[in-house]
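User: I'm curious whether this sequence folds into something compact or stays loose and floppy. Could you predict its structure so I can see for myself?
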Amino acid sequence: MRREKTSVSQEDYLKAILETLQEDELPISARLAEDLGVTPPAVTAALKRMARGGYVRVGRDGRIALTVKGRSIAQHLVLRHRLAEMLLTEVIGLEWTRAHEEAERLEHGISPEVAALLLKRFGHGSSCPHGVPLFGGMTKLRRELGAIRLSDSALGHTYQILRVYEKDPKFLEFLTGLSLKPGARVRVTNREYDETMTLSLTGAPGKKMHVGKPATERIWVRRVSAA
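Assistant: Here's the prediction. I'll summarize afterward.
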């Protein structure tokens, strides 16, 4: 069945709302304005248009909910974005630090036919270079793998990095320098009063790093055995 035609702006709003929901955060106008780099009045006007079009519902408390139609469009765009990131990094060889920004430009132009071919190429069970599954997103990581933020991890245990925050290239460059990418395993060896954590990287004996809370809150992990 052919999907209803939507504007790039509408797709961006719907994707931002869905991603906020998948992060277990409340999608409100102020958050959307920050994520999309627009003014609060612009968000208010856009939400009114999308509510009239049947894409969203806005409650009296300001909470925003996606309708079935709006969620379907958002899910398609999120999938195209992740496929674009994988195309850029795994096929073209673009650095993972730049993949999100470039995929933002490509996602709107990927046709259903191209998306299907990319999905066949990478597989339904794949994840984007930042660790987000093609299907299910953070909801899948939390429910199936027990993902938590590294900042909530316990002293003395070993964790595998599942996903990292992808919208800040400087943060990704910082992680690259520390070899903290999805798949890496770290052991929490110390936690300071200010919640700075000392980590040791599995496979690199003697290599320790000190990572502050602003970073550990942007890394999602699962507990694994030390072996």
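Summary: The mean pLDDT is 92. The radius of gyration is 19 Å.
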